[in-house]
Amino acid sequence: MKVKLKQVTAGLCLSVLAASSYAADNMLDLSLPSSSHYIQDAKSFMLASNDTDLARVKKNIAPVTPAAEFDPPLISGSNIHQYLGISAVALAAMAMVSSPGEGCESNCSNAVQAPRDVNGAHAQFAKASAIMAVATVASGLISHWDDFSLEDGWTDPDNMHALLGVAGAALMAYAVNTSANSAVPVSHAGMAELGALGMLVAIKLTW
Predict the structure, then answer these.
(1) 153 vs 7, 141, 146, 158, 203, CA distance in Å?
(2) CB–CB of 106/191 below 8 Å?
(3) Cα–Cα distance measured from residue 90 to residue 117, given in angstroms and rounded to the nearest whole number
(4) What is the rounded CA–CA span in Å between residue 178 and residue 195?
(5) Helix, strand, coil % (nearest 5) of the chain?
(6) With contact defined as beta carbons under 8 Å apart, do 137 and 165 qualify?
(7) 188: closest CA among 65, 109, 129, 106?
(8) Closest by alpha carbon to 129, among 70, 161, 169?
(9) Within a 10 A sphere around the Cβ of 179, how many other Cβ atoms?
(10) Alpha-carbon distance 158 to 146, whole Å?
């Protein structure tokens, strides 16, 4: 009986010791991870995040292209006005060069009334120059109407250009019309040359 009691007592003691040892081995570890391990993981996470943000920024930024140099169009209202004006002056010069020399610029009333050639080179150049002069004024009014303003004064280059151009074209057209519609030679060369000179000065002011 005593031997059995001793055996039971010894068995209980061994059971208690075994249970306490197992509990010690499996105790819950509530300690934080080591600082070096934590910092390493956090650093790698931040690097991945920064790389993603950088990729998004690069994707959203549009490539900057340099501004192209301004290339004015070859054909425009201003260019047409300029070409017409130069053509009018050039045709007026051709008309002066091709003049037949009628010799009637001062005393035309006593000149011999001979048939006049109103369809020769001189007459054709003169008519073409008058038509070009009128077309120049018309194109200038359409293209540069806003440039003319009396508030800037008569000495403003744009205002002087308009006045001289209109006056020159009017003188050229009047001289050509007077000569073409007269049965006898009339004095018109001085008026036509003065008109051509006015148009030339007008072109020079804004060239």
Answers:
(1) 134, 18, 14, 10, 19
(2) no
(3) 22
(4) 14
(5) 70, 0, 30
(6) yes
(7) 106
(8) 169
(9) 22
(10) 10
Whose structure tokens read 């910092």? 39
pLDDT, tens digit, 9 for 90 and up, residues 23-80: 555 555 555 555 445 455 444 545 445 555 555 655 556 566 666 665 666 677 788 9
81: Cβ contacts below 8 Å, ≥ 6 apart = 136, 139, 140, 143, 144
Instruction: Choose among 91, 105, 117: nearest CA to 173.
Output: 91
159 and 153 Cβ atoms separated by less than 8 Å: yes
Residue 191: exposure state from Cβ atoms within 10 A (0-12, 13-18, ≥19): middle
- 3-class secondary-structure state, position 13: helix
Q: Report the b/e string of 89-117 with b at 16+ CB within 10 A.
A: bebbebbbeeeeebebeeeeeeeeeeebe
Locate tokens 């006593």: which residue?
A: 110
Task: Return d(Cα 61, Cα 69) in angstroms, integer.
Answer: 24
Please list the ranges in the chain whose pLDDT falls under 70: 1-8, 10-74, 101-117
Closest CA to 132 of 178, 196, 182: 196
